[in-house]
Amino acid sequence: MPGARALPDVTPAALVRLSVPACGQPAQPSRGTWQHGCVTAATHSTLFPQVPDSADAVLDGLDPEQREVATALHGPVCVLAGAGTGKTRAITHRIAYGVRAGILHPSSVLAVTFTNRAAGEMRGRLRQLGAAGVQARTFHSAALRQLQYFWPKAIGGSMPRLVDRKVQLVADAAAACRIRLDRGELRDVTAEIEWSKVTQTVPADYAPAAAKAGRETPRDPAEIAQLYAAYEDVKRERAVIDFEDVLLLTVAVLQDRHDIAEQVRAQYQHFVVDEYQDVSPLQQRLLDLWLGDRDNLCVVGDASQTIYSFTGATPDHLLDFRTRHPGATVVKLVRDYRSTPQVVHLANGLLAQAKGRAADHRLELVSQRAPGPEPVYSEYTDEPAEAEGAARRIRELIDSGVPAAEIAILFRTNAQSETYEQALADAGVPYQLRGAERFFDRPEVRKAGVALRGAARFGGNDSLLDDAVDLPSQVRAVLSGEGWTTRPPAGSGAVRERWESLAALVNLAQDFAAAQPGATLSDLVAELDERANAQHAPTVQGVTLASLHSAKGLEWDVVFLVGVAEGMMPITYAKTDEQIEEERRLLYVGVTRARERLHVSWALSRSPGGRPSRRPSRFLDGLRPGSTATAGRTAAGGAGGVERGTPGTRGSTPRRVQRTPARCRVCGRTLTDAGEMKLMRCDDCPSDMNEGLYERLREWRADQARRSGQPAFCVFTDRTLMAIAETAPDDEHELARIPGVGMRKLNRYGTDVLAICAGQFAGGGTDQD
Fold it and tell me: Which positions are annotated as binding ATP (predicted)?
């Protein structure tokens, strides 16, 4: 909503309606925060970097292709970014450069991605680059924010309650249909309903749509369609909506209410979409409605990392981008800053044997790192032996100085986790489960936060802090009362996990104090609040256990890929060519999580004494020692570089005015303040505004606002009117150069405004008539 204050991200636990400030209230600048960079592609950066001192400084350190992304600020842009090539760095520097150069206004940019963690990371990076105020959200968060704001106007009354879990509603729907579902079937039917909604499939069309998509349905398709319809009835009866409804309802409002769609488009004029290969048809429809007839869109993705098709995600939107936007600039990022040449060679080898459309557009990665060890391949008699072997190697790595937090064990299914948990515990290796309870939701972390907040307020009266001379020692003193000790407890289990959580807070305090000398306990508490909102947990010193799906977007120095055998990779139920290729891409994602060392293993049988009937995954053929290679293929995506589209190929859509960094027209200083950029002069430089013209423009604006039924500032803000009155433009070109006058407003109001500037009344006549 135009000028609306940014709301906190909405998490799946949110069940209450958020209050939204009135349209037009000014955005508050975000407070700077620390962002942990250890799991971000192409980074081993300073923990607390300094904000660049100029727009050009934002571009420092980017490679040629990343710089192309950062400076391509107009029209459609498609970034094809291989794993570890710094895509997040490229797009955040793109946004920050545009803002710092005065080409993009922070509040006009909407960056969308797929997880709260990724959105939080993006917001943090933008703050570090001096581009606070840019909205970075998930699709659902952005849609929910708009739906809550416009519900009273579009629909009326109170918005239905949002439920974060569907399972109980599906169970109630099954009971109403007198269909018995066990726990597994309940989960699978829920997944089918979610898939149906994101692919915009109604209950009556479920059966043919599932057949066309080749889905393995957990029950008879007609039965699932019946359950789906009953589920929708239960929601209506209870006046609740689910997360897919948030997108569906937002789409409906924007389709049916053109005035609301225009209001949203007036707010957001530049869009960036991360992980574009994971966009569903429903999310693409929402994006199209946000865009309208404009083309200021930058998308980033990698078809070779499409691993969520079972949820409705499809790489087709990414692969067809050039067809839908013939004038698009396409930039390919292939310089891999994450992994060693040995790891990259294996990753490229996996995709060299791939088939299908995504494989035709694969990117050949080129490692930018020094050589490292070759991947290690290990075969075991059974799964417990495989787990013990991994735990033993990990114990050796930790003893040699590798931090436990820089090691991960990745597997195909969550059911494999238990064997590795037991093996690590037996070896005395601490671990954490990825996808388990979130860090800031842990009871010990909540209690620690309360204790630190209390000490920040009343620490002067706390004897615990008498001998604490700096911030780290204050934190250690406070957390010692919560169970933290200088030495970790022996063994593993709950006690060790609680200690690891508190130790992560102690380590964060040390990093924070080193980066911000003089920081107080209150500053640290505020930092923790910021990180909790973004779900950016500090590093916990334990080996990560994660499924391949949940590991996407993360990286470690050492990765153990386990269970890489036929039947598990690819999984047994992957039957079609498309399903097999997605399993290959899943293994590719796993391989590219490793920075330096990669261990790949499999077991010949499931349990001790079992028949050794398993064989290594077919995906390793020709890659592991002693196996036969399959004929490779050349990547159509090929090397990195830039492909520029043919401008003006979007039919009659007018081209946007290209803007250069804003400078004061009086003294020539580069402008960075949004208000000064509107006026094109420093606030303290003399104004030559025509007062009479300004008043006539204000009267005209009030009349336009009454006719359209919207606030006056939604026509033009006061600052924009002042800029027009100071410039008194003679033609559309001069008017379009004024910040705040976009193509939509130029087309809608340009004739009237130019007439008023020429001394005429809007619609004809002169002031003397």
Answer: 81-88
Looking at residue 747, its pLDDT comes to 83
Quick one: CA torsion of 596, 39, 546, 552, rounded to 10 degrees? -100
Q: How far apart are CA 358 and CA 354, in angstroms?
A: 9
CA distance 750 to 732: 7
Single pTM value for the model: 0.68
638: phi then psi, degrees, rounded to nearest 5: 60, -145
Q: How far apart are CA 220 and CA 516, in angstroms?
A: 61
546 is an annotated ligand-binding site residue: no
88 labeled binding residue: yes
**678 annotated among ligand-binding-site residues:** no
In DSSP notation, 495-532 reads HHHHHHHHHHHHHHHHHHHHHSTT--HHHHHHHHHHHH
In terms of Cα–Cα distance, which of 731, 618, 622, 720 is closest to 674?
720
Q: Is 85 annotated as a binding residue?
A: yes
Q: What are phi and psi of 8, to 5 degrees?
A: -65, 150
Q: Quote the tokens at residue 452.
A: 């630190």
Condensed to tens digits (0 to 9), the pLDDT of residues 262-283 reads 999 999 999 999 999 999 989 9
Query: 3-state SS string over 311-328?
Result: HCCCCHHHHCHHHHCCCC
Q: Is 81 labeled as ligand-binding?
A: yes
Per-residue pLDDT band for 112 (boundaries 50, 70, 90) equals very high
C-alpha torsion angle, residues 438, 440, 446, 448 (rounded to 10)? 120
**Which uninterrupted H or E stretch holds 224?**
helix 221-238
Q: Helix/strand/coil (H, E, C) string of 437-453?
A: CCHHHCHHHHHHHHHHH
How many other CB atoms sit within 10 Å of the CB of residue 180? 8
Orientation angle between helical segments 577-591 and 341-352, nearest 10 degrees: 180
Torsion of CA 6, 8, 14, 16, to 10 degrees: -50
Q: DSSP letter for 596, please.
A: E
Q: Could you read off the pLDDT of 575-586 as tens digits, one per residue?
A: 888 889 999 999
Q: What gap in Å lies between CA 56 and CA 66, rounded to an integer?
A: 14
Question: Annotation-wise, does 86 bind a ligand?
Answer: yes
Mean pLDDT on 200-213: 90
